[in-house]
Amino acid sequence: MQKMDCKKKKHRGKSGFTLIEMLAAITVMVLIAAALFVAIPATMNAYQQMKAVSESTVLLSTLSQSLTDELRYARDVKLQSSDNLTLASFTSSIYGLEVKPVSHEGKIEMVYTRVPPGGGAPVSTYYPLVNDAVYTNDLEAGLSDITYDGQVFYLELTVYQPLGTTSFAEEDQTLAAIELAVRTVNE
Questions:
Q1: How far is C-alpha 79 from the chain's CA centre?
Q2: Plot region of 31 (φ>0 → left; ψ -120 to 50 → alpha; else → beta)
Q3: N or C, where is the chain less crowded by C-beta within 10 Å?
Q4: Residue 11 pLDDT level (bands cut at 50, 70, 90)
Q5: Pairing relation of β-strands 107-114 and 140-143?
Q6: How far apart are alpha carbons 156 and 147 in whole angstroms?
Q7: C-alpha–C-alpha distance, residues 3 and 7, integer Å
Q8: What pLDDT is attached to residue 10?
Q9: What pLDDT is attached to residue 96?
């Protein structure tokens, strides 16, 4: 009998978790997990949006500098006959061809259009204004009509994220835009 009493005394000094304490701990862990389940996707979306805005600013800066360089040294500027203000083409000092900057498939490119010898439909060749690697994070760029008053080119560049490329964009979302006025040095 004495041995039994010893075993009972040993267990009396040790404490354990009660069922209520265990349920309370599990409830707290479930609440923390639920909060994380909501917070992590929201944080990731905010990060992706901030990253896209940052990269769009870099893309816009790169495009505006490259386009400014092209237009600054433009030669033989031709305007559309309909309004005599909108750019039709110019001779590029970089490409040595008669080109026009255009927005093509979400990128700003220089288009060279020629009629094949002997006639036929005009053939357009697109030259990238900047390397394709600059268009990161599914960003695309747009270009307004370029006008020219005889000394200065006027245009607007936009960088946007197309619909469906991120979870936060419900439509094409303009992330950055700039209006440029570029004075030529060759005319």
A1: 31
A2: alpha
A3: N
A4: low
A5: unpaired
A6: 10
A7: 7
A8: 56
A9: 86
